[in-house]
């Protein structure tokens, strides 16, 4: 057999495995393209969780009640934990966390665009939990059946924890809509600013996503961008109606034939501007992450040094 | 607002108050404010570490401690509000008092210089809390005893974590040793206040409601000295004890903390959040 | 290790080391793999594992193992490694026919 024959055989076996619905595990043979795609996707997902701690973290010290402070702390802690599960899953593919952080800092790895928007008021904390986490849930539920074992297991864990996140956000919005006029205005203002970016979280329209072929064939991706976006809109519109919030889209209309809401055009120019680094918070988010990483260097070095000294002592004793 | 029924373990039981409790209402109220404010301000400082930790795992750890402390503040301030009997809640106490009515020890309001500062401070205060809450578990006051039973578990873990880090940083690299020694030197003068007492608290101690706080100083020193020895650090030479927080005279730091913390409640006084 | 190597290694900035985490959710149950954490030593690894994997009361006991101490079976050798056990059905209790009426067997 030639090398090409062997590769063809291996690829065939791999795709049959995927077709059967078997999970791919770290030591299994996999196409390089599959490994690379997953490293990129999982590490970017992890980075998103970590960067996402920043806009919400902005309001911890100003949380308006002790209960609100506890809930927000617990939520952000979960996000950090999700980052950990995902870094852990990515490392099984042969990349280290150090490398992943380097890629984030160099811009080689991206994170979810949504976190390049600022959390300006307490209502933003509500909007982020309800809309952003709500959108993430739709995506993550789908990913529970992704083909790579460690990734799918991480997603199952994440999904279990995510529903409280959305509820805490929705509860904040609901309370404010029942509150003073100023609170209602604050909530509607946050809605107006976070709605469209949340829709953009699902990525470009299916017609504009030419590279999804492999992702679907290899069951990395289990549903299309537009399918997931529609799911999100359908459930969220009803939730908004219940608490009296207006969706900032004049063209939003139920389409009986499609069984989904039709919506107005998404501002893809804004989407690409923000992806390319020109959003309101891109620089701030990255500088924060870099600064914290640099400031933590002496701590990490000290921990390593302490351990190495003890290992050396044991070595000397022998 | 915290209601006792919010807590699944019903750790606060409102039995008929004993005569000694009634006599001690005001001193006990003051005492609970002190402990509650310690936890409140500690929790504030710990929560500032969110998304700022030296490694992601430590972000989670510090957030846990902030959560523990917020919960503790909630319980203690709720009880203080009940004792006062003027319709206050844990939230109204946390978010609406003027600066001089906060009674936390000064050590908690100092800003974190760096990670070494945070760990040294947590080690010093959790060593104290372990002794304090162990003693309070045996309090004649059932509510304090119940709060203490919960706090002691949390505080043992805080100490284990912080002491571990002080050792690693003290005996890590030259830089980490320098920073840890610097932190210890800055914090040491603020540790004396934790052992201050007054005639009202001495009466509470005589009635078996709280421990005699001065008796905790020696065991505290022993615990701390042990950690510092493993960390290759020396106890700093003391110049003067810093004091005043317990009676409402604070450092410039508290004003800024309250400014942040109270902002929404002050800006929208009629709103419920 | 030479002193230079030790000192160089000592001042390297890493994300510390990787540890695999196994948790037992209630007394007597199996320890199940939960994922991994980073830590510099075993005490830190235990604490980090507790914070990462047992926030919702999912653990009464934790094991941590350095990631490179784990040895895994080779998927390429799966047939050689596992199939021979598949046809030894005499290891299963259902292989045996018991006389009718016999109890507790």
The secondary-structure element order of chain B is HHHHHHHHHHH
Proportion in helices of chain B: 55-70%
Residue share in β-strands of chain B: under 5%
- Report the helical percentage of chain A: 55-70%
Lateral arrangement of strands in the main beta sheet of chain A:
1-2
Beta strand count of chain B: 0
Uncertain residue ranges of chain B: 1-17
Portion of residues in beta strands of chain A equals: under 5%
Overall mean pLDDT of chain B stands at 92
- For this structure, the quaternary state is heterotrimer
* N/C terminus separation of chain B: 10 Å
The secondary structure category of chain B is mainly alpha
Structural class of chain A: mainly alpha
> What is the molecular shape of chain A?
globular
Q: Outline of chain B, from the CA principal axes? A: globular
The number of helical segments of chain B is 11
Largest sheet of chain B: none
User: Low-confidence parts of chain A lasting 5 or more residues at pLDDT below 50?
Assistant: none
Identify the biggest protein-protein contact and residues per side: A-B, 43 and 50 residues
Rg of chain A, please?
Answer: 22 Å
Supply the key terms.
heterotrimer; A: 318 residues; mainly alpha; two-stranded antiparallel ribbon; 13 helices; C: 105 residues; alpha+beta; three-stranded antiparallel beta sheet; 21% strand
If you had to describe this structure to a student in words, what would you say it looks like?
The complex is a heterotrimer of chains A (318), B (273) and C (105). Chain A is built from 13 helices and 2 strands. Chain A has 318 residues and is mainly alpha-helical. Chain A has a two-stranded antiparallel sheet. The longest helix of chain A has 29 residues, at 149-177. Chain C is α+β, with helices and mostly antiparallel strands and 105 residues long. In chain C, 28% of the residues lie in helices and 21% in strands. Chain C has 3 helices and 3 strands; from the N terminus they run αββαβα. The interface between A and B is large, with 43 and 50 residues.
